[in-house]
Amino acid sequence: MTPRIFISHGAGKDACVRAVLDNIVPRLVASGYEVFVDVEKLRAGDEWHEVLYREMYQCDAAIVLLGPETVAAPRWVRREAEVLVGRFKVGGLAAVLPGLVGDVTTAEARRQGFDALLSLQAAKQSSWGDTLPSQVSALDVADSLMAEFSPLGSRSGDQGARDWARRVARYLESARRRSPGSLLDAARQLGLSDGELVHVKARVGAELYLSHRMLSGGVAEELPSAVEWLKPALGHDQLRQLTAEVMPSWVDQEAARCFLPDEAATKAVDSAACSPVLVFNAFQEWTAEQYVRRALCNAPDTYSLGALEGGLPEDDSSPAEALEAACRAALRQVFRVPPRMPLDSRTVRPNEGTLSYLVLSAADHTSEDLGAVAVSLRHDFPWLVVVVLTGGIEPGAGSDGLSGLDGLSDAVVVVPPITMEAETAAYRLMKRLDAVVQDPGTLSLSEVS
Length: 449
Description:
Helix 18 links the parallel strand 7 (about 355-360) and strand 8 (about 385-390). Helix content is about 45%, strand content about 10%. The two termini are about 35 Å apart. The protein is α/β, with parallel strands linked by helices. It has helices at about 15-30, 40, 50-60, 70, 75-90, 105-110, 135-145, 160-180, 180-190, 195-200, 205-215, 225-230, 235-245, 255, 265, 285-295, 320-335, 365-380, 420-435, 445-449, and strands at about 5-10, 35, 60-65, 95-100, 275-280, 305, 355-360, 385-390, 410-415. The strands form two sheets. Strands 6-7-8-5-9 form a five-stranded parallel beta sheet, with helices on both faces. The chain has a four-stranded parallel beta sheet with strand order 2-1-3-4, sandwiched between helices.
């Protein structure tokens, strides 16, 4: 998922090319890119031409460095340039960036067969570079090339977050292809500074850079306006999927981590290890699902969540028995148990890669009943995460009895708690994003603000 940059060069012949190479490679790596340079990546015994062709067809962007000695004997660099420019012309590469280093001229490079490459604007040393030391001129070219790469941050860290940003970036790439100025318009709506807008104008990585900003959580209020500017360049399904991707970004990341159970508990069947019961001071089941999606970096098919629908059945059952019956009915959907088949260990097992959640509201039940039912459900389904919504009441405040829940001394309180204002703002954000997706004229942003 990390953008791959292929660098074609003749550093073995040109010291000035080597100076550029030595400057830009560490800067690209520090900016979050994966860089292929043949002299560093090829190993003894490799079929070098096979490796080079594979890298040229797998890279996301390329740099071609031409120095005077490289142009004088251009055979392999020229061949690489032809392959890379060919991919760029058919849309297979984000960019091919030529760099002319030293006293090489465009006219001489064209005479040596680099016409296709030089149909693209090349980075060159300053016009007064002849009066400068060669290393200074090389750095001038290096800076010009680096200006076309947006900083993506470190490649270390959470893979799920990187995958999430890449999914959003794909929609931004689609928008940019159809409307080159749409990304810049969206970035302005997010309130990016002039210095940040420079990165959105870059030829490589701009989509990922803007994706990270959209998911940062600090621009949630501006998201609907930004997506509105992308709307003309995206199909309806793409727009709907993009809004679904960015929606959970408002959730506090620290609080969302509470929704990730212990790994041992997620695999437990006949084990003492259990997923936690979460006590969450939110009002809506929708809010709990947003926290789950944020915890899982919104990755598809990674969770199944259910909540009770309507009231409990009116029969001779005790409130606790009625609650448990309703929970088990909801779990049939969570675990996807076929109709008429029993809800037990023969039909229900932990699903590798998928977490299971059941959301209950404390406003509808006593803490004694909630505790008893949660204990029973965890006994049968120890990997199940039960989320108890306390409707704005922070556990431990007053004598509501929710601080531990009867029989559940290991209940986990979601912290930091969500405020009523934040939950209301998130709901309005969802409505505003929904309004953007709807057909023109059905609902305006002002009607749901």
